[in-house]
Model the fold of this input.
Amino acid sequence: MEKRFGARAALEGADLVVAAGEVHALLGENGAGKTTLVNVLAGLVRPDAGRLEIGGRAVDLRRFGPRAARVAGVGMVHQHSTLVPAFTVEENLAFADPAAGRWFRPRAARARVEALRARYGLDAPLGVRAESLSVGQRQRAEILRALDRGARVLVLDEPTAVLTPGEVRALLPVLRQLAASGCGVVFISHKLDEIRAVADRITVLRRGRGVGTVATAATDARSLGRMMLGRELDALAPRRAAAARGPVLLALRGLCAPGLREGSALRDLELEVRAGEIVGVAGIDGNGQRELEEVLAGVRRPSAGSVEVAGAPVPLGARALRARGVAHLSGDRERAGLVAAMSVAENLLLKATWDDRRFFRRGRFDAEAAARHARACIEAFGIVPPDPERAVGLLSGGNAQKVAVARELAERPRVLVAVNPTRGLDVGSARFVHERLLALRDAGSAIALVSTELDEVLALSDRAVALVRGRLVPLPDGADRDAIGAVLLGEAPGVAAA
Done:
């Protein structure tokens, strides 16, 4: 397949061959062409050149669109839900289905969904509006909808990027079961451990070209990373010795805060982060991560306790924390970290205030100063394309995250609160973010790293604790993954009672 968008080549002769009965992973950096390639398969993008065969039959690409793809047996589950929020699962399956007829028949629709659920082991609640379902339940409903319309090739575009670890563990066996039923499953993910756990074969793209297809059993994570990047990745910097760390810059003292759900309220948190140190806070989503992030971002008021910066309590609020040198890298880039419709330059100044004399003079915004700042950040952080006026929503996930990282790190804050800083990023983009965090640490800043990615916490942290049911629990030194997993699940001695 070949496809250009203006001067940019998204695909340059990329190949993908998927067999019935296999889970086929599609791997590559952000911007490598993965989504463009599967959008061609789903009829959403018309290529400039290439050949498409489904079930051994050639497809006329000049007349191939979403409806033709569906008739040919291609179903696509996007990363973000396309269900009608106000409709139930049954109503969403019937909606826009040519075979549904003029009238909606709830009993017949429910029977169809129940049959599909039983056949594939996909649990999606019936009679409940889609807006009330969890992310994982909505995703299973989307898979049911594709199967209901006869999908023989099922494409899942980064299905685990927005799931909790428990939902990921539940999804992977479903993909194997779908393949066992005769479907060809195309699985796009950045997470090599997930790909190795579920895929039969892996096709790697790099800059719009196919690097190769390999059997999962015949490769390893290092080889896949080299195929993706075209180079080896050096080891990250080692942990810093305790003697190299400075005074306490961030401290939580008896911090309590109400929770969004049972088990997520913060209870008597005590934590110190020193200059030149990364303290990792590991945990499974729903144990208080969001509440902790919002307190440290100044948008959730604690019910007790305090936050101290450099030994002095801070009146909590976004502006007060920012004024004391606390930066916040949001764990939800799309909803809370960036504004997609705004330009790169505007996003880089989202947290600037009217009294910042670099960008505001006598009450007026200095557009040229803002442009100079944006160009400097673009160069320093390698944002592509290097266009300050480009809308952030048009950037790849990795480059959008670079904009967020640039905004928070450009001024070298004394304290950085980084929440899931590499969620949804490919290997190369994640490494870039990790290196920037380590460089900030080595420059003397204190970093609180809150992440649901255990590998990330273990790789970056000088010290680590776990957030379990709203309490901070020490992680034992030298513990293996099983022991750490028991702590995170609340099954270690003393944790369940906490």
Q: What stands out?
A: The mean pLDDT is 86. Residues 2-229 form a domain with the Rossmann fold fold (CATH 3.40.50.300).
